[in-house]
Amino acid sequence: TAKLRVALGTTVELKQSVEYLRSFSNPKILIDITSLISIKGIDIADKVAKKYGKLGITQSSIDLVTEIIAQKKGASSKGYMSVSKEGENFIREEFSAERVAETIAHFEDLKKWVSEHCEIVAIPPEAVGNPKKRKETEHLLGKSFSDTLIIASQKKYVLYSDDERLRSYAKSEYGIDGVWTQLLLMELLKEKIITDDDYNLA
After folding, report:
1. pLDDT by residue (tens digit) across 34-43?
2. Higher-confidence residue: 9 or 191?
3. Measured CA angle at 55 (ends 54, 57), to 5 deg
């Protein structure tokens, strides 16, 4: 089980987001790819679905998972070397064929969970808005995140993202409040869907 490494957010953001979430009598959650990976990684996905029902997700987010699986099954399947730069240093990391296979299995399980616990939400015609702004957002964030923001901007779904920069952009550019995993864990704990131990281990 992965350990969650997501900040609680500022006190102001936390207060606003809790109020926003609780302003819905029956909130419908729109999840992005970062939060999807988080809740599966810390084994609370089923409990989130138990509380909020089927989660909304964009087709482009599912497509992203499919692309990752296809990529790993392709040339990367025999293992590969990754090189990244941190400051003045280059960091090499080896991904063995076994590690790649584990990644493929993880994302295939993720896709299966989505098919059982999520519903695809299409972008309604009235949400298209300014084509130039939409294109700029897609260029900046990628199609998956852009589509998620456009749908959330209709205020029918609660944006759920563990990417603080995305939530900040959503607030400043679209006037959208959002929630993240630690906040939902607090809500699950409050309603005794998870235990104190579950919360502390996440």
Report:
1. 999 999 999 9
2. 191
3. 130
